[in-house]
Amino acid sequence: MTYTKPIFLVLFLPLVVIAYNLIPQKHRWKVLLLASYAFFWSISGKLLVYLLVTTGLMYVCGLWLNKKQNERNEELKNAEKAQKKIIKQKYVKKQRVILVINSLILLGMIVVLKYSKFLGTNINSLFQIMNLPIQMPIPSFIMPIGISFYTLQAISYIIDVYKEKIKADRNIGRLALFISFFPQIMEGPICRYEETANSLYEGKKTTYKGLTFGIQRILFGLMKKIIIVDRINPLILEIFNNYSNYDGGIMAVGMILYTLQLYMDFSGVMDIVIGIGEIFGVKMPENFRQPFFSKTIAEFWTRWHITLGAWFRDYIYYPVCLTDKCKKLTSWGRKKIGNYYGPLLASSIALFCVWICNGLWHGSAWSYIFFGMYHFVLILLGRIIEPLVKKINNKLHIDNKNFLYIIMQMVRTTILVFIGELFFRAKGLKAGIDMFTNMVSNFSLEQITNGTVLKLGVDIHDFIIIAITVLVIFVISVLKERGISIRESISKKNVVLRWSLYYMLIIAIIVFGSYGLGIVPLDPMYANF
Amino acid sequence: MERLIEILEEIDDGVDYENCTTLIDDGILDSLAIISLVAEIEEEFDVQIPTVEIVPANFNSAKAIWNLVVRLQEEG
Lengths: 529, 76
What we know:
By secondary structure, chain A is mainly alpha-helical. Chain A contains 20 helices and no strands.
């Protein structure tokens, strides 16, 4: 069962919504929790135990931290000013032990389940290179669904309690629902405790606005998924599985269409997830903000998978930058190489940590590490040459707010994103390098112009339908970028026009959707991470 | 407060720090500027700025940054 399957959309979700609204408010959270565990069980079965362990750990460690903080506060009440610093330091050490225990267990679970095969294979390769007659057995585990997402939520909760940004939750039911809420468990968004925990637990009745807005958003996500993602899939599979049969032009087509597919899939699922949240009166954080309008790669990552980027920023980037050693490096750097490049030294160390983690978070393969390093280098280079670009622009009197200049920046950023996604999707790092080399050194439009591209599972009619849908989504994105809320505008129209639009969207999905015999719908792509 | 304005001007001197209330929202202070600012403030005012305090509300204006410094000094 996934969010785009009919069993979920026409049976599971409506039943949960009905049960949720029939039950008294104070018990509604129990319906959501039960539905969340049933959803998890339907995909991962007994692996639900990992989610339960994570929940239990969050609960115990949170309260443990709170207990230490209360003890510290009691001691501080009676302490003189000189003693206060010593008491605080003593309790920081105690709390750090709890934090380390919690992180080791949570990260230990994900490392064993997600990375042990990758680590084992690479250690064995290393032994072979060193001519050592040792080969480790390579374990293989099945991962519970969403482990990469809910582990980050669990870690952020404990760190926030440790930092006293939030109080530890004494209600294990609320905590369990926060970590397991069924719409977000597969692909996020990665929520912070203060963003969703209370509204999930509150059990607000579904309102007419919440229901209609939620359904609209779900339909919009389904449009992306069924019309574009599934329709485009045969061509992507063919190009990436048999890349050696095609020229560079086809490689470029595969690279562009895969990026389009990934965006439509992930942002489409997010539309469905946020839409479901709206039905239950829960405002989930947005995960996309028109990413292809980014002027730089750094900006792209503040618009694409926003909650993951924000997580890395808050729990890796700033904590690394603000370690004592990095702060000393920043102060030293500012004196030696100036205000701009000085802090860049510490920032680049933190960025390296972020992008190694980002790459590995996506998967346990060298191609993902390459993907992370690719973005690290691009962001760092962007930072390094920024003053030079400003100088050149000033000398040449180029206005950086000029429309054409901005369009050029967006196109450049998009091309860099395409290249990154080529390596991301390729079957391994070697395949990625081969495909990229083929695209650059063997670029030709021949297989596009002679019609080969139309024989790879996506014909001219498919391309026309995809192009029209992309155009519609592009226009909506432009309006959103200009701050126009399309859904609010539609909701103010008269009932005939409003419902005509809804029916048009439903009919478009039914008529132009890619489903039926011979069509294998693609499971949500980010669920595999 | 005057010293804080001086520190901010050392980082970027083309901004009206007395009146600007959108230093983060408008991207005037980016992540590099924040790193510099935190290192400098900690050294100058003998405070520790924890990462949990690095939120737009605390850095959007010179006044907000100053309030943060004063609060951290009071908390010891």
